[in-house]
Specification:
Layout (H helix, E strand, L loop, with lengths): L1 H7 L6 H55 L3 H6 L7 H4 L2 E4 L8 E11 L2 E6 L3 E2 L4 E2 L3 H4 L3 H9 L6 H11 L12 H4 L27 H5 L37 E2 L3 E3 L9 E2 L5 H9 L4 H13 L36 E6 L2 E6 L6 H14 E2 L5 E3 L2 E2 L5 H5 L6 H10 L16 H4 L5 H7 L3 E2 L4 E10 L5 E9 L6 E7 L9 H4 L5
Parallel strand pairs: 5-6, 8-11, 13-14
Antiparallel strand pairs: 1-2, 2-3, 2-15, 4-15, 7-12, 9-10, 15-16, 16-17
Helix pairs in contact: 6-7, 10-11
């Protein structure tokens, strides 16, 4: 019996081996799980590092753009400009590597609006002067009907919404014919007061009566400038016709708060203000242009004003200058010089003095671009809010008081998006006058409202790796109206995805 008990209490021979195997398996699994976790952490760290690198690549793109925009307009034109310049703005390498997965680049990309290609793209910047500046509307137009008309050029705009936007801008509390003021907004839940002042962001429009996200942002949900993928199935707002793709980007493609032009000559030097107070200084500045007739005429005009009489003409260069006489008249625009007359009294006889800028199309083809480049009637360093004839959408051009649809179609048919040697003077809005599209009187009417190029730009930048890897997308607004460009807006839009395939962005190869 003692023998049986002794045998029953002895350990089974295979238990220790099983225990050892289980422990080894658990330790192996723990080691594998730890390795996998460390590998995942390494991948995450690499991805995070690449994402940061892509973001820094976008910073490099901004610096490149600031460098380009710091050039005077002549030098920038020699570099290919900023409207569509793949050599400077597509697939620019920043980080090199032996394989595509290690090479990082940036591309600056923008939509290209053409009647037959609503989904085309270009490598360049968007001129904010190609859009309607909301904050400049009231100062440009005293007439409320004209203010509303300018807004009605935006696709999908209604009279109610247009007047409500203007009520949001103006300082008074009286609603316009179709608008809304405090009485309307105080009845909302939650209630709030209208701004009665300038917009700080375009998104602020969503607070205005009648403005919806669908109207403001359009169909292009990923902000790549074209309607692609599921975006094509989105419903249009009621009453909006998008057959030509004009509503793809919504109102963001038509409105701005930033447009402006530098009041400087093409070489970057200050313009001569022909309304300057010191006539002797003004005379010397004009003489420096090797234009003695112009110098004499401007001073005489400032002293005596316009002349409509029929006195015998005296060459401007033959008139003697008397700088003790005060300036009593000013020029509304440089265009007042064209075909105008002033007078001078000699020995009791009034003699007319003709402007050296005769109203002659052939002569003005040479003389007017020089006058537009070198002369101004404003002491302001920046001119805000004028619409770029060379890039603005047809709908916005038609909304300009004084332009007919036929004239707008002629402008679109003849214009160049950037100044071109094929059309001398195309860098100035007066090209539509010298090309016979508008008369001198019509040009004088619309001149305060239009330009041919702006100096504030919007850029969409993609920083990316040539193969796989994360990408960064940012939107910036750069102001080149001063001698040193500055950044007005930086908006991260990486959450919307890369937006474009690598083949479009640009890559060097395997």
């Amino acid at each position: 019996m003692s023998t049986a008990l002794a045998g029953g209490s002895s350990p089974r021979p295979g238990v220790a081996l099983v225990v050892v195997l289980v422990v080894v398996a658990l330790l192996s699994y723990a080691a594998y799980a730890y390795t996998e976790m460390m590998y995942a952490e390494q991948l995450a760290a690499d991805a995070h590092g690449q994402a940061l690198q892509a973001r820094v690549v976008c910073d490099s793109a901004v610096e490149k753009l600031m460098l380009l925009l710091s050039l005077d307009s002549l030098s920038l034109r020699d570099r290919g400009g900023v409207y569509d310049n793949p050599a400077e703005l597509q697939g620019i390498p920043v980080v090199d590597g032996a394989v595509a997965a290690e090479r990082a680049r940036f591309t600056v990309i923008a939509p290209l609006y053409e009647p037959d290609a609503p989904t085309a793209l270009r490598y360049g910047l968007e001129d904010e002067s190609a859009k309607l500046n909301l904050n400049a509307l009231l100062s440009q137009h005293e007439d409320e009907t004209e203010q509303r008309t300018r807004l009605m050029g935006v696709p999908g705009m209604s009279e109610t919404t247009a007047d409500s936007i203007l009520d949001w801008l103006d300082e008074d509390a009286e609603p316009r014919e179709f608008g809304a003021e405090a009485d309307y907004y105080s009845g909302l839940a939650p209630a709030y007061a209208p701004k009665n002042g300038s917009f700080d962001t375009l998104e602020e429009l969503l607070l205005v009566q009648g403005v919806t996200p669908q109207l403001l942002f359009g169909l292009d949900a990923n902000r790549n400038g074209i309607v692609d993928g599921a975006e094509a199935d989105a419903l249009l707002p009621e009453g909006v016709d998008n057959a030509d793709g004009s509503f793809d980007r919504g109102w963001l493609g038509y409105l701005t708060l930033y447009s402006g032009e530098a009041n400087r000559s093409a070489d970057g030097s200050p313009k001569i203000n022909i309304n300057g107070d010191d006539l002797e200084t003004l005379y010397s500045e004009l003489q420096a242009l090797a234009q003695p007739d112009l110098a004499n005429f401007v001073v005489l005009y400032r002293q005596s004003g316009p002349y409509t009489g029929s006195g015998s003409a005296l060459p401007a260069s033959a008139a003697s200058m008397d700088f003790t006489k005060e300036a009593r008249y000013t020029f509304s625009t440089v265009l007042d010089l064209i075909g105008s007359k002033t007078s001078i009294t000699l020995a009791g006889t009034t003699r007319s003095v003709n402007s050296p800028l005769a109203n002659d199309a052939v002569q003005l083809g040479t003389t007017l671009p020089l006058a537009m480049d070198r002369l101004t009637t404003s002491a302001d360093e920046v001119v805000r809010g004028r619409l770029n004839l060379n890039q603005a959408a047809r709908q916005l051009l038609i909304s300009i008081p004084g332009l007919t649809e036929e004239q707008v179609d002629q402008i679109i048919a003849m214009r160049y998006p950037e100044p071109s040697e094929e059309m001398p003077g195309s860098e100035y809005s007066t090209w539509i006058f010298t090309q016979g599209i508008v008369t001198l009187d019509e040009m004088k009417t619309i001149f305060p409202l239009v330009s041919a190029q702006g100096a504030v730009y919007r850029a969409q930048i993609v920083g990316y790796y040539e193969q796989s890897g994360p990408a960064a997308r940012v939107e910036v607004v750069l102001d080149a109206t001063g001698t040193t460009p500055r950044r007005l807006l930086w908006r991260e839009i990486s959450h919307l995805g890369r937006g474009f395939p690598t083949a479009v962005l640009g890559a060097s190869g395997p």
